[in-house]
Fold Putative glutamine transport system permease protein GlnP.
Amino acid sequence: MTKNKRSNWPWHVLTGVILIALAYGLWFSTSLISYEWRWNRVPQYFAYQAEEAQRATDYGSVASIVEQGDRALVTLSNESGGETQLSVARDSLHVSEGDDVSEGDEIGVTRHWAAGPLLWGLWTTLWISVLSGAFGLVIGLFTGLCRLSKNPTLRDLSTLYVELVRGTPLLVQIFIFYFFIGTVLNLSREFAGVAALALFTGAYVGEIVRAGVQSIAKGQNEAARSLGLNAPQAMRHVILPQAFKRVLPPLAGQFISLVKDTSLVSVIAITELTKSGREAITTSFSTFEIWFCVAALYLVINLPLSQIANRLERRLAQSD
């Protein structure tokens, strides 16, 4: 093993050289168009300090101001003799002791950290992916079994569904769901987007399940039936567990593709990660920086999925 590692080091060096060359090529390309990198504008789209104005609720005056570090405790006395205390950022004070205030006057602001548009877009992408993937898995399992059914109606309908979905673009399906079915049934855009993604994923998962079940030797089913199991029990306890081991890699690939396909629901005004990135670009003018961050966030989602699928695959292979 040590000898093998030693013999591989030149290839690792070559990999590093290629990556450095690609990075230099990217830098050189942007220098040709005089692009100015502004990475300092990016962090505010992940998290920022939101300001909330604190206003007087009645007519009165400023009785006292007590500084407490970077904050100030302002005591307001109203005309009826009552007092109100407001804690605001010290550098945002708009009043001094003894000043008269009217109802609605701004005294100062309070600051707190809030998630930026890219984090909110990431969250939207995550929950849409999880819901679409869960429903797609259920639909795909049912469709795959229907494709293998001896019932002609189930087999024909499932085949028609798979061919229709796989033969038309996902973008067109989203438009049909939102503008036609969504309008008729009064569905929200989020429901329409999740439904379109789930049905699209279900068609591909159905074909993966069908191929996985058909790859199991017929003798497995015959052996299960000879032990007294009926057809559903044989499928559940014998065939599907073996098929799952074989279809795990393509299933993982399909769900990784689903995460990326969620970017298409931005066309029906769902503010997921890609749409959040576009909105951030319009205010920051940092095109390359934002798109690199968006790509990195998709990697943050998909790389763990790949690693989990690989570990699960190795574990299942050891259990054979």
